[in-house]
User: What shape does this take?
Amino acid sequence: MKIIFLDIDGVLQPFENEDRFNHDLNETVELIKKRYNNDIYGKMDPYDVCAVYYDWDINAVRLLKECIQETGAEIAVSSGWRDFNDEERMRALFRIHGLDQYITAVLPKGRKEEAIKWYLKKNAAEIESYVVVDDYDMSSIFGTQMIRTRDRLTEENVQEIRNALRSDL
Assistant: This one.
């Protein structure tokens, strides 16, 4: 399998995007609960639900989805959001943008570098290639498999992801 270790802030959610604060959070959560016929959204932090709904960059989401469909990669969520949302909740959040079907794992809580290394070691036999996509530079650990975004995923980043996923481990 091909894995994209995915961060959220600075990748899918640009730092300046805070449109959620211009809306009634509870009203939006109710809307999302009805839209997806799932009460889990009411049990989650409304800031997270509304951040995904209003603040994730639509172009970054589109680019990620296209890249995944083209490469056959799967997502392992490495974002700090996993410290506050278990796998079921992360899948629900990603469902808002139709990305839940691509999640293969939500890494355990803790330092993301260690969680990524643990996942790579645990699944070494199944992993064909991988890439770490994050706004935090971890190239000293992951070398050319690290793709650093600056504020959001761009077409240039996606090309780097495609290239990294083609390379042999």
Summary: Residues 87 and 135 are 22 Å apart (CA to CA).
